[in-house]
């Protein structure tokens, strides 16, 4: 049996355990024991991926507009707007 070493996508801790299955996609969800957040190892929708959200913020700081970000990252304009509206993580 193969083992997979996972790291939390939020705090990068290795204290991760299986949690449950995602209700919509049926993918395995994991729970981080450090920060208490849940995540999936491989997102079905690009908009849910934390790296895409970080790219949206980075591109906006570098002067890209909403439609430019939408076109380059291939996500919906509403995804870009929602990312701007959310409070920053601590």
Automatic annotation (TrEMBL):
Matches recorded under InterPro entries: InsA_HTH_dom, IS1_transposase_InsA
Residue ranges of every copy of the Insertion element IS1 protein InsA helix-turn-helix domain listed in the record: 43-85
GO biological process: DNA transposition
Name of the protein in its database record: Insertion element IS1 protein InsA helix-turn-helix domain-containing protein
Organism for this UniProt entry: Emticicia aquatilis
């Amino acid at each position: 049996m193969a083992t997979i070493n996972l790291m939390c996508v939020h705090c990068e801790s290795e204290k991760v355990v299986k949690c449950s299955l995602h209700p919509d996609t049926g993918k395995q969800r994991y729970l981080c024991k450090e920060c208490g957040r849940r995540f999936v190892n491989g997102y079905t929708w690009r908009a849910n991926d934390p790296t895409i959200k970080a790219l949206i913020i980075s591109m906006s700081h570098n002067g890209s507009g909403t439609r430019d970000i939408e076109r380059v990252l291939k996500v919906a304009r509403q995804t870009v707007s929602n990312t701007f509206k959310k409070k920053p993580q601590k």
